Amino acid sequence: MQQRTLIGVGSIAALSLIVVSTQQAVAGAQSGALVRLQAATPGVAQVGHSNVSGTARSGALVTNAFQLTAGAANGRFLTSDASGNASWTNFAFVLPYEQTGVTNGNIGLFRIINNGTQAAIEGRNQSNAFGRLGGSSYGAYGEHGTSFNRGSLGNSDTGASGSNNNNPSYGYLGGVANGAWGEHGGVNGTGVRGRAYNTGGVNYGVHGTSASPEGFGVYGYNSSTLTGATGVRGESISTNSGIGVEAVSGYYGVYADANRTGNVAYGVYATSTGMGARGVFGYADGDGTKYGIRGNAAGTGTNFGVYSTADLGVAGNKQFVIDHPDDPANMYLKHYCTEGPAPMNAYSGIVTTDDAGYAWVELPHYFDKINKDPRYTLTVIDESDDFVLAKVSKPIKGLRFQIRTSKPGVQVSWEIKAQRNDLWNQKYPPKVEVMKDEQERGKYQRPELYGLPETMGMDYNERRDVRRTK
């Protein structure tokens, strides 16, 4: 019988466990109740018990079970100090926590996976505001505890979305059908708002583009059926040539369509207030025939290409322009208006005197309601050698006047010109010489007629000139 000292060796992580046991063993034999120290590595697996009361040192411990009872509790983690002494502790991070992760595809420093349907991580504060990461339909989700305003990133159908529960309002980015969407449910709200506040360069508060020939760079829609509902509105507070809405195109700078049926519809409706205001100003430049404003009207009923409910004025000549009857495909025929210092109406006709040399001329039933101060012109039409005289024997009275000729049965061409005296001219009497408005003084309608530069024109606009010369 020989007495030997048996040593059990073990190591777990930073914890070193030293086991020493003294047992009685028979040389050359194994006991089922003991663990025997073997010279060979790894040796022969043994089943037994080792009761240790001292210290055992080893390189590694291979075991199917391990138990450290001191300080143990459900959910605690085994940690070690710098000397390798182990203890049970609660799981905790020391904040702020900083580490350098190893690049491994899309995996970060920490990776938590929830194989269920809920979020991988949730954080919540005492106000019940919370955030979640790695949900089944979103990458990140957050919600305020009292206002319940919420937002999320990496959704199943949008890149980012958010809502305000108080207004309410909602918006998202990177949607299936829309790159950006915003809606607001409160009074005087804005669905989408963009702001560019730098005063240098060319900045865009909202910039929209579209590559589709049927698409729209910017599209506005108002579903209200009430008066004044507006699809798109632009506003500028600049008093120095500010532009509320500007459109630039290779063909139509602005295209407007109003298709309301049964009532008056306006393709373009423009208003302007202030001294010297212009409701609409048209300007055309380039080669060939140019039109500052050109209008057309078609269909049944009365058609006006251009119509004014107030005075109509031109600095050039008033004219009618038609396709030339001799060469309609290649030429125009122009005729010009006769001007005068007062607005006049003209009536004319041909009458034949009776056997006594008299003839009555009947005027329209409205003549005396819109005219005053009539002027008479008579011309005899007679192929004989006789010298025939004609005169107004009785002036206009009761919507007619009388003509007398020195020879009976003579044709007389007559014309009445009378000054307009309708309600418009009674309320706004025509003026011949007037002073220019204050903001127009020192400026010219056509400065080139006086050898002056374009900048002296009353409609010259520096902004327009800069854009035109780009």
Topology:
Blueprint: E1 2-12, E2 15-25, E3 77-80, E4 86-89, E5 121-124, E6 130-133, E7 140-143, E8 150-153, E9 160-164, E10 169-173, E11 180-184, E12 319-323, E13 332-336, E14 344-352, E15 358-362, H1 367-370, E16 371-381, E17 390-394, E18 400-405, E19 411-420, H2 423-427, H3 462-468
Antiparallel strand pairs: 1-2, 3-4, 5-6, 6-7, 7-8, 8-9, 9-10, 10-11, 12-13, 14-19, 15-18, 16-19, 17-18
Provide the structure class: mainly beta
Identify the strand order in the major beta sheet: 5-6-7-8-9-10-11
**In DSSP terms, counting alpha (H) and pi (I) runs of 4 or more, how many helices?**
3
Helix and strand run: EEEEEEEEEEEEEEEHEEEEHH
Low-pLDDT segments, ≥5 res: 1-31
How would a textbook summarize the main sheet?
7 strands, antiparallel
Coarse shape: rod-shaped
Question: Would you report the number of β strands?
Answer: 19
The share of residues in extended strands comes to: 15-25%
Radius of gyration: 50 Å
Distance between the termini: 113 Å
Averaged pLDDT: 80
The amount of helix comes to under 10%
